[in-house]
Amino acid sequence: MKILLCCKAGVTSNMFASALKDEASKKDMEVIIWATAETMIEYSIEQADVILVTPQLKSSVSKFEDLAKAGTPVI
């Protein structure tokens, strides 16, 4: 599973991505997790199986849904 985390500047999402990677490793889960800033999301959004968005970007969820592959959850 490929998980993309997105926040306003990429700082919070990078910290969260690191924590998720650690937990996935403990559970022997095969995941690819990466983080991006809102301004850079268009460069990697199509590669994600799921997109997690911080609360600060709640108003951008519909934009991200339009950019993502059809059926990709944007949470």
Automatic annotation (TrEMBL):
InterPro entries: PTS_EIIB-like_sf, PTS_EIIB_2/3, PTS_EIIB_3, PTS_sugar-specific_EIIB
One GO process term, biological-process aspect: phosphoenolpyruvate-dependent sugar phosphotransferase system
Domain PTS EIIB type-3: 1-75
Naturally occurring in which organism (per UniProt): Massilimicrobiota timonensis
A Pfam short name: PTS_IIB
Protein name: PTS EIIB type-3 domain-containing protein
GO terms, molecular function: kinase activity; protein-N(PI)-phosphohistidine-sugar phosphotransferase activity
Location of Phosphocysteine modifications: C7
Annotated SUPFAM superfamilies: PTS system IIB component-like (SSF52794)
Chain coiled-coil ranges: none
Keywords assigned: Kinase, Phosphoprotein, Phosphotransferase system, Sugar transport, Transferase, Transport
